[in-house]
Amino acid sequence: MKIPFSPPYIDESVINEVVDSLRSGWITTGPKVKALEAEVMKLTDCQAALAVNSWTSGAIMMLRWLGLNSDDEVIIPAYTYCATAMAAMWAGAKVVMVDSGQDFNISVDEIRKAITPHTKAIIPVDIAGFPCDYEAIMSLVNEPEIQAMFRPSSPVQEQLGRILVLNDSAHSLGARYRGQAAGPQTDITIFSLHAVKNITTAEGGIICFNLPAPFDNAQLYKDMRLMTLNCQTKDAYTKSQAGGWRYDIVGRGMKVNMADVNAAIGFAQIRQYDKLLAERKRIYNAYDEALSQYDWAILPPSVKDDSITSYHVYTLRIKGFTEQQRDELISEIAQHEVAVNVHFVPLPMLSYYRSLGYDIANYPNAHRHYEHEVSLPVYPQLTDEQVQIVIETVVNAHDTIVARHQI
């Protein structure tokens, strides 16, 4: 039985919503985008939410808004997908990588060590959907001695008066942090709606605004919505109405808006997200229950201090395995037509970042997580029978590799 890793959830409600968009005669940014934004605000309790065409473009836009220059630094974890770093680079800043803690997520202690007067933003990453310690990170940037070190290089930075925290929540839509929905705890939170995410728009992202006073998040939403449309004073939907043709360009914008035909997919999914999240939890708990009996299985974080994962993927670690043995394990699993993955190859191990001088030796926890990690599939369509097949395949593959190497 073939078991894919992460197919999108497409039921009749999704198909009907997309068909409705197609039949409406309007398929780019319009009413379905607004409806999706409203649903995200309801789910997350964020003050404002803006749909864009990808997490990456949303992060680039917000870091550009922050006003970064080549002397400015953005702190990110070494253990993340390349988009986290690329966004800061395209916004013109220098990327400073730090190591992970034991739960895959960025180490707050390592953030503290990396802060300099040039630090303008921190991008924590909720690996596999488990929230970072937002409270500790926000407390850190608000410490008097850290704020005293801050040297603003743009009007926005001066207005904020401290380091910005932009959370990479690509995996964590629907997660909870200390009893509250994940999202409003940091200045800006960006969720991904890519095809493999819990809620998808095929490609897309959602920016959530939660900046403190004197910032007006409702106004910032309007300003950034304008930015997503090349700073054109009327979007195409408004401009297409009878007599509404005249427009102006009021700044140097970007073209990163989401289309209605994409938003329709996510809008249909998010309205039934309670059910979809419960199905992901069912699978996650089945893995936990089955694998907890093996001393070689290091289970991923799921619940801690009222923080709960979004159950995006199951990041299993294999105790005692080398990177080569982990790769052999994946190959053995694949022979049984079960698809698994790895989240992630640390950035300093990738050719581009190595060429810039980043060295994985400086990030021992990130390297250790990577060489032991294999991601198991989690999605609502997985049946109990398929989940058992995944478990049995992983266990048998582990035993095969152990016997081969006589570990």
Characterization of the model:
- It is a single chain.
- The protein is of the alpha/beta class.
- Helices cover 42% and strands 13% of the residues.
- It has a seven-stranded mixed beta sheet, with helices on both faces. Strands 10-13-14 form a three-stranded antiparallel beta sheet. It has a two-stranded antiparallel sheet with strand order 6-7.
- Helix 1 packs antiparallel against helix 11 (260-270), helix 2 (31-44) runs parallel beside helix 11 (260-270) and helix 13 (323-334) packs across helix 16 (384-405).
- The longest helix is centred in the C-terminal third of the chain and has 22 residues, at 384-405.
- It is globular and about 75 Å long.
- The mean pLDDT is 96.
Question: Secondary-structure map with pairings?
Answer:
Elements: H1 12-24, H2 31-44, E1 48-52, H3 55-66, E2 73-77, H4 82-90, E3 94-98, H5 108-114, E4 119-122, H6 134-141, H7 144-149, H8 155-160, E5 164-168, E6 176-177, E7 180-181, E8 188-192, E9 205-209, H9 217-228, H10 236-239, H11 260-270, H12 273-291, E10 297-298, E11 303-304, E12 307-308, E13 314-318, H13 323-334, H14 351-355, H15 364-372, E14 373-376, H16 384-405
Parallel strand pairs: 2-3, 2-4, 4-5, 5-8
Antiparallel strand pairs: 1-9, 6-7, 8-9, 10-13, 11-12, 13-14
Helix pairs in contact: 1-11, 2-11, 3-4, 12-16, 13-16
